[in-house]
Design goal:
Length: 219
Amino acid sequence: MSLRIGDEAPNFTAHTTEGPIEFHTWIGNKWAILFSHPKDFTPVCTTELGYMARIKAEFDKRNTKVIGLSADSVEDHKRWAQDIQRTQGAAPNYPIIADSDFKVAKLYGMLPAGVSGDAKLRTPAENATVRAVFAIGPDKKVKMILMSPMTTGRNFDEVLRVLDSIQLTTRYKVATPANWKQGDDVIIAGSVSDEEARKQFPGGWQAPTPYLRIVHPPA
């Protein structure tokens, strides 16, 4: 299965470090970030889980829930959390899914459908593709997919930046330019005619070309 932006995020039930969940019910009317890891007790992922714990309040401000996933058991996750606390200064303050049967990884296209067996016998390299970030909207649709190699730590400040853009462009008929960050000027969406744009943006806009209409961000 290959997920694409705009697809419905597959629903599932799972055990987590904070108890059992049904994913769509857990999301409720909020946004969600699902970020996955190939295996517990891996070095790069240890830094990522700790950093996410330190900035979780930023996701809370954006009405966004955070959930991790690793292809090991709840018991392993809890033992790993002690290492994360000791080395990163913060333990996970969000649930982590126990995906030792690879069910979620396969649902989200991170591992082939035929993968099976004992998670403890699989190496991180065998699970290397279980290293993704999915942003999911309150409508349960996939809004963003980021994939990273095992040796490159993910930039969660970038995840926040993209989330800001998605939330803004979902609410208003605008797009965000390269390297945009919250508060910067935006672009009027190409689907909006000049006539409609004049109603939405009565203060006008800059247009270095007819199709590039730059405007201050909506309040």
